[in-house]
Amino acid sequence: MTRGPTGANIMVKGHSLDGTHLGGHGSGGDMPLEGPFHISAKLDRLMLRDNVAVSPLSLEMAGIGDRPATMTMSGSLSKSATIVGEIAPAEQGRRLTLNTTDAGLLVKGLFGFSSIKSGRLDLSATLPGKAGDPSSENPSVPDYQGKITLRDFKVLNQPFLTRLFTAGSLGGLTNLMQGQGIGVDKLDVPFSSKGGVVAIHDARATGPAIGLTAGGYIDRAKNAVALKGTMVPVFGLNSVLGSIPVLGNVLVSKPGEGVFGMTYSVKGNADQPDLNINPLSVLTPGILRRIFEGKMPNAAQAPSNQVSVPPSTAPVPVSQQ
Predict the structure, then answer these.
(1) What is the pLDDT of residues 257-302, one digit of tens each?
(2) Sign of CA dihedral 15, 18, 20, 26
(3) How many other CB atoms are found less than 10 A from the CB of residue 36?
(4) Nearest to 219 by CA among 283, 273, 141
């Protein structure tokens, strides 16, 4: 690393680098740099978790402090899987894109999450302002926002979904997931983040065996989660009536749902949250199901966003004798 009039210039070259900490809690951008910087990395191998590696890896990044201005990244997760990323100036700030042809490998390497098999991942996000702009204190301006899309993947042996299917008396889906896996054609997760609280907006997954919708928040700092949505078994058949004009909107109500489905809620510690299913909601089609779903969790309700009120310092009146 050298320092000059244009800031810090960091060059990293070598055979292998330990990157197993990249997907951990609190690893989202604690960059120990001040002022302008430029990073150039050429590695034969970046080791992630569970023997997953990006090999080779090429990275060029520039920015100011903990705010990147530009980035280009490319590498290989396997002989047939690639990963590419970019940060570039855009009309409303900076645009981040990340794409890989094997989402299962990337998620396993970053988070140790082995329940996703294959799939294509496309992430697109907007970072507000320029790198040199100060962080906004306006609570309505997110640190970043965008959408994650996964296509053509399978889910296998996922403990949370096992609990969800069991609570909904969907033993057939549990058996399928523990066998060849549940196929998902597409998963869309629109999101925004402020102060470490990620808000999920109208997320939905669709596949031949099941459909899911979700909304709420994930509080990374407090490791808390609150989500609500609807689970729709046999999605392909269940959603056919949704294509009927007007009537379909009433019967289905939301994209990614079907005529019949069960509402669920998830809340508490992200490692083992409380799960509730409303079995009566399966008897209620479409638009009326919103009654059972209730009000969606809001990021403002996240533990990290709760302002503690200090105890009153007013003098206590002395009672008269």
Answers:
(1) 545 677 888 999 988 889 888 765 554 555 545 555 557 788 888 9
(2) negative
(3) 18
(4) 273
Answer yes or no: are the C-beta atoms of 215 and 228 closer than 8 Å.
yes
- Give the residue carrying structure tokens 């096992």: 162
Of 280, 300, 307, 301, the residue nearest 292 (C-alpha): 280
pTM equals: 0.79
Indicate the DSSP class of residue 29: S
Measured in whole angstroms, how far is the alpha carbon of residue 120 from the centre of its chain?
Answer: 15
Q: List phi, psi (to 5°) of 172.
A: -65, -40
Residues 262/231, Cβ–Cβ less than 8 Å: yes
Distance in angstroms (rounded) separating the CA atoms of residues 233 and 207: 10
In SS3 terms, 39-101 reads as EEEEEEEEECHHHCEECCEEEEEEEECCEEEEEEEEEECCCCCEEEEEEEEECCEEEEEEEEC
Report residue 203 as tokens.
């997320």
Helix ranges, the chain (H): 103-111, 159-167, 171-178, 235-238, 247-252, 289-293
pLDDT in tens, 217-248: 999 989 999 999 888 776 554 555 555 444 44
Q: Which residue type is seen at 229?
A: G
Beta bridge partners of 13: 42
Amino acid at 200: I
